Amino acid sequence: MSKLIQRGISSTPSMTLFILLVSLLLIGQVHADSQQVIKQCESCHGSKGNSQKKDIPSIASFSVGYSQKVMKAFKADKRQGKRVKATSSSKETSMNEIAKQVNSNDLKAAYTYFSKQKFVPARQPSNPTLAKKGQKVYNKRCMKCHGDTGADPEDDAAILKGQWIPYLRAQMKEFQENKRPMHKKMKQQIKRLKPKDLEPLMHFFAQPA
Known about the structure:
Layout: H1 2-6, H2 13-45, H3 64-75, H4 95-101, H5 104-115, H6 128-141, H7 143-146, H8 165-176, H9 184-192, H10 195-206
């Protein structure tokens, strides 16, 4: 508006109304694009970010900071996402492609939306005896960053408690094979894990918080 006045164009009521309508249309388009991105996320990660697919994580309640870090790694190809189809009729894609194609404002809107959703633990069987052993491993190796139970982590860490076991097993393998980026503290703890620790740890995560 000020630029129009500076250029000698009068700010008439009709001009003001026109600019207001254009602004509202643009805001509406941004909102529509963000909603589309959220729906795209939900097609794999489930309604409100709670996954029903055993090989895909729930992202509800993930902090904005953590989601940004994850997508930054995918965008830079420092982390490789597997190719998936959201539905049988949809086109195959990967998190790497999505991170590169979706603009940052729409991604940020999606991060904010999912950060406000309630995390619902996956319903899956777990062995109480193994889970008890796994809790001891967790307390020693994971608790400092991922919270007392794994359900309330620091802002730059993932929620582990209640995630699908098949997904967690796959991610643990990637960490151990150095195929997924991790900070120095986690790298040290991963190296200290013994083979016998892994299955109890998975059963501990499988139990709801």
